[in-house]
Amino acid sequence: MELPPRPTLFDFHGVAMTKYFTDNWVNIQSFKARPDDIVLVSYPKAGNTWVSYILDLLYFSRTSPDRQNSVPLHERVPFLEISIPGFPSGVDELNSINSFPRIIKTHLPVQFLPQSFWEQNSKIIYVARNAKDTVVSYFHFDRMNKAQPEPGDWSSYLQRFMEGKMVFGSWHDHVQGWWEKRKSSSNILYLLYEDLIEDTERELSRLCSFLELAPSTDLKKEVEEKSLFSNMKHNKMANGSADEVLDFKISPFMRKGKVGDWKNHFTVNQDEQFNEDYVKKMRSTDLHFRTVL
Ligand code: A3P
Q1: Predicted local confidence at residue 242, as pLDDT
Q2: How far apart are CA 290 and CA 293, in angstroms?
Q3: Strand 103-106 to 123-128 pairing
Q4: If pLDDT is split at 50, 70 and 90, which confidence band does 1 have?
């Protein structure tokens, strides 16, 4: 289907957004959470797809094995705030799910999460990734995603990232906002992409104990194997190729899956500038990221 021209960014209650994530705002904000919902939150490009696939396998690979081969991941784990004309909205998709738990993807900053999730005490998993790899991944994603604003060239993109002029706003505010919230809520598990890469088995155990799941050794092995980057990349139901707004001729969705790819993009100058700005914006937090392993 023919997509309209790329959307533009605008300020939405202090956060840069596009209409595709704000047009359905009233329905998003009045969304009714169910007690067993699992909310998977991240700033874009932090590994949301990876963790959503892990969750889907943990909950459904034994009870609904067909779902793995026939339903694209973005339909199994709907994106709460998305609403692109011609496609079902995330809210409608979520409301039509009869299986449980519902696994719900969102990129909303903490202050925008619909109230109902807090009232229902929903389990929330936040995934964060270091800023440098995030901005590189986001750049390539915006190049190939026709529903995102024009990315422009790399150096102007990097500048805009530092200024928080990205869809879903400032990375610095997003990761810190959820990190602070986690301190007062035992229902938030904060995962780091770098930790997942370093030791998937360990992080899978943390995830299962948070969710009070006790998967068999077989299932754990299966989840680890199937969610490997190399396997997901070739899995048509999990690699984004079923998503019509993505143009794989420009860049694959499953691109590198590494920690440290930023080194292939940042010049020495850009790195210095970025670090200087980073220290200022992250001065007051005890949240730390690794940019190399
Ligand atoms: P790169 O562009 O650096 O490769 P999101 O799903 O939040 O949009 O994040 C996408 C990023 O996660 C991409 O990063 C993608 O390759 C990476 N990713 C997805 N699945 C992965 C996996 N199984 N292992 C490691 N990285 C993965």
Answers
A1: 81
A2: 7
A3: unpaired
A4: low
Determine, yes or no, domain membership for 292.
no
Cβ contact 55:68 at 8 Å: no
Evaluate whether residue 248 is within a structural domain: yes
Whether 11 contacts 75, CB under 8 Å = no
The pick from 41, 42, 45, 51 for probing ligand 1's pocket by mutation, whose C-beta has the most ligand atoms within 8 angstroms, reads: 45
- The residue segments making up the domain with residue 43 are 13-281
Give the number of domains in the chain: 1
Residue 244, both tokens = 């019509």
CATH number for the domain harbouring residue 138: 3.40.50.300
Rg (CA), the chain: 18
User: In the beta sheet, which residues pair with residue 41?
Assistant: 106, 126
One-character DSSP codes across 166-212: STT--HHHHHHHHHHHHHT-TTEEEEEHHHHHH-HHHHHHHHHHHHT
Kindly state whether residue 154 falls inside one of the protein's structural domains.
yes
pLDDT at 32 over 70: yes
- Are 184 and 280 in contact, with CB atoms under 8 Å apart? no
Residue 293 is assigned to a structural domain of this protein: no
Distance 119 CA to ligand 1 centre (A): 31
pTM for the model stands at 0.97
Task: Report, as residue numbers or ranges, the catalytic residues.
Answer: 107
**Atom 24 (ligand 1) nearest CA:** 229
pLDDT digits (tens, 9 = 90+) for 69-105: 899 999 999 999 999 999 999 999 999 999 999 999 9
